[in-house]
Give the backbone structure.
Amino acid sequence: MSYEKTNIYQGPSALPSRKLIPPFESLRAFDAIARLGGVRKAAQALYRDHAVVSRHLRALEDWIGCQLIERTPAGAVLTEEGQRYHEQIRQAIDGIADATVDIIKRSQDHSLQLWCMPGFALHWLISHVDEFESKNSDIDLQLRSTHEVPDFSRQEADVDIRMLLESEKPTEDDPAIRCSQIASPPVIAVASPEYLSRSPDIQSPEDMLEHQLLHEEDFDNWRLWFGACDIDCADELIGPRLWDGHMTLAAARRGRGIALSNALVAGEDLAQGRLCEVGAGLGSFPNVNLWTYWFIARSDRWESRAVSYFREWLLKKVQGQLSKEQQ
């Protein structure tokens, strides 16, 4: 069967005959086999079973009425007709891919899917992000407060803001991600004025071992903080476990005990007098740095307008606030 090119379109706005455009899955299967040199390699690249890829190939050969692939002991080899056909459709498939990448990049300049740990999201970001949005009203920001780590390979998020220990810091060994430090604010102990007024005086970190300590899901954070103060916490620490950092802050505001935080997360409470920094101004309290906030993003989105603008704004805003508080 043959078709003359002049008969493919019946006019400038007409669609090509349905018979002349094979199913795209069959074209993708043939293209992958031709590029990679085998059905199994194509199946792996397409995340399909090799039997499925073989069925798509047979369907394409039946559709156009000729053999495209010759199976040999050395593997799949394109027939003469297969070579000619692939040279033509390869350009079309590459063109579709290039056009799709182009439109995705342009649309991504105006969208930002952001995941963030709850403490930072609820106590700092939500109070400041309106500034970014007002300056970039064309960027659609979607913020998710979560402890979960996004799967960048599935494009669950563009950016993840995470607080990590030095031993947990991300590396760029994975080509799928890029990362940048945001800040490492000192870890401070905070309590309400009411709690401190009715509790024994605190003159050193050791004194807090006799106080009600507010923990997250375990005692590790307080152990790390005391360890940084050269205090051995071999004995079991006391105090309720409340799972989240923002819950320990809420309990501290209500006078239930002493929580660990930093100037970013507890900044508003400290400024409004709802919380006080325990040991502020006392030389017996060392400067303790345990965690760093990291800006982690998909490498293919790192230079996009939405991600780069947000990254620059966030770093400038955070560093500016911390610099003011250190003055």
